[in-house]
Write a structure and sequence with these properties.
Layout lengths: L2 E5 L2 E7 L5 E7 L2 H16 L6 H4 L3 H12 L5 H19 L4 H5 L2 H14 L2 H20 L27 H30 L3 H5 L6 E2 L4 E4 L3 E4 L2 E4 L2 E2 L32 E4 L2 H12 L19 H14 L22 H13 L4 H8 L7 H4 L4 H20 L3 H10 L4 H24 L6 H13 L1
Antiparallel strand pairs: 1-2, 2-3, 4-5, 5-9, 6-7, 7-8
Length: 466
């Protein structure tokens, strides 16, 4: 039970902690005030809202490391490594020597820190750093180290300002893929670009594709174990890719056929999926896989035959393909015009979804293809049907063949030399385009006599007869 005692000229209140030991709160001028303060502490203990001051003095470094050790086992390796990097590079250098309760009482210091981050980093990076910091402080609240999260209410981003997302045309996508083919990457570069646009897959989902993850019967790629970069290493299925044996016994992909290691899975359960390819893209992809030895061989590899690091591919090949070379200097001997300057690999995913929306594909089919789940009751009652899948394949096939026909004659012949397997489909598309053009021309020739013209001709004919 709480009580008060005099200490020199002041009073202090004494109360019992949850572990049975006594604590005190001091500095009061009257016995009544000291007793009231001690009673308030015991009330907080009874209502499970009490904060032990000894624990609240824990340094941020110690608490953050405890938090990271506790959550790491259930995080993917890439996420755990990302949090560790945030702690080592940004959070501990700034807050490491601060007691947790000191951070709680330093709202304006946190505001100033966020402002300084904006002066040095992109908005998305600032949001990531602050998000990790806020998560740790939330953990401090749940662990009864601090009474509330001091990050609450702090505005990190502008909100109304968003980076513009580009949507490429099918012809732009094809021309960029052809530039990758010619820039030493061959068919692998062309197909990685086209799969970006015609599957909507994420980078790791496509760069990590292997021979055994292709369903030749249903013409679909399997997305179950994306390629991940963890502390500078490439991981596939939770294993360093340097330890993979391309000629090991083949395992069946699929969530029901084998268990996938934790941390090796897709971004969410909905991300595990089969993505059917349009016929021409499937034909080209099979041509690429025919040149790969071993069931566990990667479909897309660097010039050295290794799986791709994202930054390496982006800087050496993707950016020149889209941004051109000396694009602002047409007189330069190295000049190559830009296709769509600044276009990113992930914007191919945005483009894929936009194409399907333009073609009238239902939202449930678009979300399933991208590995997203529907919101609300639609998640329960809406399902992808074979008719929807057919609509998707036909829409994407039409877009691809149209893009081939939009190439110049030399460009088209070059493409068909690289991938002769699509020549029959392209020739059929050309014949259909000519037939439609002839039909339109015939309609126009008949319609030369417009409804407005006809009465005038009839009246003139009548006058001639009279």
């Amino acid at each position: 039970m709480a009580y008060a005692e005099k200490r020199g000229k002041s009073w202090r209140g004494r109360y019992r902690r949850p572990d049975g030991s006594y604590a005190s709160t001091s500095g009061f001028t009257t016995k009544r005030a000291a007793l009231q303060a001690a009673s308030d502490e015991e009330s907080s203990i009874r209502h499970n809202t009490w904060i032990d001051r000894r624990v609240a003095e824990m340094l941020f470094t110690d608490f953050a490391n405890q938090w990271h050790s506790a959550v790491t086992p259930r995080l993917s390796p890439s996420t755990a490594a990302k949090y560790r990097r945030y702690l080592d590079v940004q959070l501990i250098p700034k807050w490491g020597d601060w007691p947790m309760i000191g951070i709680f009482n330093s709202h304006f210091e946190i505001e100033g820190w966020v402002t300084s981050l904006h002066n040095k980093h992109e908005e998305s990076s600032v949001a990531s750093y602050f998000g990790c910091f806020s998560t740790i402080m939330n953990a401090g609240v749940r662990a009864r180290v601090i009474p509330a999260n001091p990050c609450s209410g702090i505005r990190v981003t502008g909100g109304e300002w968003e980076t513009e997302k580009y949507v490429a045309t099918p012809a732009q996508a094809l021309r960029a893929g052809m530039r990758l083919y010619e820039n030493q990457l061959g068919l692998g570069g062309l197909m990685l670009c086209l799969l970006d646009f015609y599957t909507g897959g994420r980078w790791g989902e496509l760069a990590g594709q292997m021979n055994h993850e292709y369903d030749q019967v249903n013409k679909a790629i399997g997305v179950f174990e994306p390629l991940k970069e963890v502390d500078g290493r490439l991981m596939k299925g939770g294993t360093d890719v340097t330890a993979l044996d391309p000629f090991a016994p083949r395992q069946q992909s699929g969530r029901r056929k084998r268990r996938i290691k934790k941390g090796a899975r897709t971004k969410s359960p909905a991300g595990e999926r089969w993505v059917p390819l349009p016929p021409s893209i499937a034909t080209m992809y099979e041509l690429l896989l025919d040149g790969k030895a071993g069931a566990l061989s990667f479909a897309f590899t660097s010039l050295q035959g290794d799986p791709w690091y994202r930054s390496n591919f982006r800087q050496r090949f993707w950016r020149p393909a889209w941004d051109g070379v000396d694009a602002a200097r047409p007189s330069s001997p190295k000049h190559v015009p830009a296709i769509l300057a600044g276009f990113t690999f992930h914007e191919g995913r945005h483009t894929h979804s936009s194409w399907l929306a333009e073609d009238g594909v239902p939202e449930i089919a678009r979300r399933a293809r991208l590995g997203h789940k529907m919101k609300g009751m639609a998640r329960v009652y809406d399902h992808v049907t074979p008719e929807m899948e057919r609509q998707v394949r036909e829409a994407l096939e039409a877009r691809f063949l149209t893009s081939v026909l939009e190439l110049t004659d030399p460009e088209r012949e070059k493409l068909l030399t690289w991938v002769p397997t699509i020549r029959p489909a392209v020739e059929r598309a050309q014949e259909e385009a000519m037939r439609i053009a002839d039909g339109v021309a015939g309609v126009r020739s008949v319609s030369q006599i417009t409804p407005i013209d006809r009465p005038a001709r009839e009246s003139s004919g009548g006058q001639g007869a009279s």
